[in-house]
Protein: Glutathione peroxidase
Amino acid sequence: MSVYQYEAKLINGEMIRLSEFEGKVLLIVNTASKCGFTVQYSELQQLYDRYSDKGFAVLGFPSNQFLGQEPGDEIEISSFCRLNYGVTFPLFAKIDVKGENAHPLFVYLAKNAPGMLGSKGIKWNFTKFLVDRNGNVIDRYSPQTKPMDIEEDIKKLLD
Structure:
């Protein structure tokens, strides 16, 4: 089992299999446009710019499950991210990341990289999951962890 077995809808409505990212190091993040951590889009984009040519990708999955902090539709989300943070990494359609309607990818990620005290649930926006080139979940980072603080872990997987 790996992240490659899943598929998701891109923000433009196109379905994509995550196997299209096979061989890349991935940072999978649940995002929101109206959150105190929204500024992390900037660092996520910096990492993507710095390492995408070395086999790295950021995958952003907007979710409105935490205090309604992603209220917009896909067009609004895409425009906001592009205009305010210059986001060019893949963004996906809005999904649930917890609960009975959680996207299967996030169920898999949470199960394979539990949070504090073994918690399987995703507690807030900008929870980050680092995935190696084989599709294995390597680590989970809290929303408070700035993307640039993950850079060394990304570089190790790229070497």
About this structure: The domain at 3-158 is CATH 3.40.30.10 (Glutaredoxin). The chain has a mean pLDDT of 93.
